Amino acid sequence: MTFSIVALDPKTKALGVAVSTAVPAVGSVVPHVEAEIGAIATQAETSVLYGVDGLKLLKEGLSASATLEKMLLRDTHRERRQVTIIDIEGRAAAFTGKETIEWKGHLIREDHVVAGNMLTGGNVLQAMTEAFQLETGSLAQSLLKALKAGQEAGGDKRGRMSAALKVADRRWKSESRPLLDLRVDAHHDPIKELCRVYSVSRKYFQIPE
User: Fold this and answer.
1) How many domains are contained in the chain?
2) Span 94-132, pLDDT tens digits
3) Could you tell me which of 5, 90, 87 has the C-alpha nearest to residue 41?
4) Does residue 25 belong to any structural domain of this protein?
5) How far is CA 116 from CA 4, 87, 107, 110, in A?
6) 33 in any annotated domain
């Protein structure tokens, strides 16, 4: 019921997730990010444990694929899940369960993974990865461009309602504000509004380009 992207900027080592869906409050459950550790999106029949436990496993030194495999093995409802992971080394992994709703799928590319379920078609993910690769700005900007491209290609086949952007960047990590964590809920055009909120936040919090 969602489309998302997890990514790493190999130059700055920033990590992030961008996501949108046709139900409220996607930012409270799907994106999970920790600076210098990894980024995870957990969706379809969402289990936040994939994000919480996944970051713990990455912190212990497991790779993205080993982390995902370990969590799937202990989940009896794994075929209802969709999970994507990228770690600080750029290693990526993804899983789309057989019981998730069509159109469903994921694409693993260099430094990012796109995934979605209940989409209008596979062209949504293709548009996202192409937009991400073409953007030359910051990771946050690249994630937003990918999200926008996914919506323009059709997005969630039920419509649109919420979107979120979560980025961890060691260049501005602090105990008080380690993440860029932006959310838009119950909006007729959530991705456009998320881009506006990011523009305001970037200037206010002096977020690096």
Assistant:
1) 1
2) 999 999 999 999 999 999 999 999 999 999 999 999 999
3) 5
4) yes
5) 6, 20, 9, 18
6) yes
Domain range for 150 is 2-204
Look up the CATH number of the domain holding residue 116.
3.60.20.10
In a domain, 184, yes or no: yes
Task: State the pLDDT at residue 209.
Answer: 65
Residue 176's pLDDT band (boundaries 50, 70, 90)?
low
As a whole-number percent, the residues of the chain with pLDDT over 70 amount to 96
Tokens standing for residue 148: 């926008």
Closest to 97 measured CA to CA, from 59, 71, 120, 123: 71
Task: Name the DSSP letter for residue 138.
Answer: -
pLDDT, mean over the chain? 94
Beta strands in the chain (DSSP E): 2-8, 15-21, 31-34, 38-44, 81-87, 92-96, 105-109, 112-117, 162-168, 179-184
Q: Which amino acid is at 190?
A: P
The span from the first CA to the last CA of the chain, in angstroms, equals 31
Give the pTM: 0.95
| pLDDT (average), residues 184-203 | 94
In a domain, 209, yes or no: no
Burial of 177 (0-12, 13-18, 19+ CB in 10 A): exposed
